[in-house]
Design goal:
Sig_transdc_His_kin_sub3_dim/P, five-stranded mixed sheet, kinase, alpha+beta, phosphorelay sensor kinase activity, four-stranded antiparallel sheet, 356 residues, 3 domains, PAS-like_dom_sf, Heat Shock Protein 90, two-component regulatory system
Length: 356
């Protein structure tokens, strides 16, 4: 019985492939065979390219660097060569290609030529670059939002709080000068002013914790946890596996997600204990916020539909907008864990200045 995977069957397979350019080169690098996938990707018909050197597929910079010859040398020496980079179509336009060159030897070990497989991944690269650009824009938006929060925080601190502090001082002086029957009213006013100052300071802390300006995510989150502790909730921060503070924009994103998770633990989960853990992993920061509250069976729809609580959806959107991920692990009556991973930055995009 004939081997169905050799001879004519294999030729038919190669000729039927449309998504990959599959062709043979002779030992000197001249094109010997051509398949429909190669014609679709590179633009040449078989009668136009067979007999030409495969270096016609490379941009001028690669030709000056001797890249085609180098690739064949490596393939002949070690058996194969893999590359990812720009290639040129017949019309001069460029595409991003994944290339594998395999050296072909006969039974006596003599080099008979090369098999070359090329895949056009331009659309994938373009989508990746668009995603990186969206992340970069989001980081810039976060930076702009935080700058505005910082400005408002400074205004509240330098104007409103200082003005209220001055009122408090006058009320304290006045308490020693007014008749006894007016003293309770003055003291009540002073207490109201002191409470207002406290609320304004909490507002300033929420708007822009000073620790974030010092690029210390741990200190900023400790300030959040102190607010919970003041309300009788037991808190813990574990950041020993945070090898380095994330960049400012990533720190801000994490700080806001942690803040939303802590607010949920207090208002909705009715938790008695909350733990926040940071770990540096995969060029980013993994964060876990665990509570012992009432738990939930809410499923957060990644498309934003359903009855998802706004705060949960906001956390997911913050994480995913910068290229991270977010998840909620919980069941009714068993507490909850919010987990998210945020990259250290938007990541590099491939240079498409020469792309076509």
């Amino acid at each position: 019985m004939a081997d169905p995977y050799s001879g004519e069957s294999f030729r038919l397979f190669v000729q039927s492939v449309q998504d990959y350019a599959i062709f043979m080169l002779d030992p000197r690098g001249y094109v010997a065979t051509w398949n429909p996938g190669a014609e679709r990707i590179k633009g040449y018909r078989a009668d136009e390219i067979i007999g030409q050197h495969f270096s016609v597929f490379y941009p001028p910079d690669d030709l000056r660097a001797g890249k085609p010859a180098h690739e064949l040398e490596v393939a002949a020496e070690v058996g194969r060569f893999e590359d990812e980079g720009w290639r040129v179509r017949q019309d001069g336009s460029r595409f991003w290609a994944v290339v594998v060159i395999t050296a072909l030897f006969d039974d006596q070990g003599r080099l008979r030529g090369f098999g070359k497989v090329t895949r056009d991944v331009s659309e994938r690269v373009r989508a990746e670059n668009e995603l990186v650009e969206r992340r970069r824009l989001f980081f810039h938006l976060v930076e702009a939002q935080e700058a505005e929060r910082r400005r408002i925080a400074w205004d509240v601190h330098d104007d409103s709080i200082q003005a209220m502090a001055a009122v408090s001082m006058r009320l304290q002086l006045l308490s020693g000068q007014v008749p006894a029957e007016h003293l309770p009213a003055v003291r009540a006013l002073d207490t109201a002013v002191a409470e207002t100052i406290g609320r304004l300071r909490d507002l300033v802390l929420r708007l822009r914790p000073p620790a974030l300006d010092g690029r210390d995510l741990g200190d900023a989150v400790r300030a959040q946890l102190r607010q919970l502790s003041a309300q009788g909730i037991e808190t813990e921060l574990d950041d020993v596996e945070l090898t380095d503070d994330p960049p400012p924009e990533a720190s801000v994103t994490l700080f806001r997600i942690v803040g939303e998770a802590l607010a949920n633990a207090q208002k909705h989960a009715r938790a008695n204990r909350v733990r926040v853990r940071f770990r540096s992993i995969d060029h980013g920061t993994l964060t876990e916020i665990t509570d012992d509250g009432v738990g939930t069976d809410v499923v957060v729809d990644p498309l934003g539909g359903g009855d998802t609580h706004f705060g949960l959806q906001a956390m997911r959107e913050r994480a995913e907008a910068v290229g991270g991920w977010w998840e909620l692990i919980s069941e009714p009556g068993s507490g909850a864990m919010v987990r998210c991973w945020i990259p250290d930055g938007p990541g590099p995009a491939r240079d498409e200045r020469d792309g076509g």
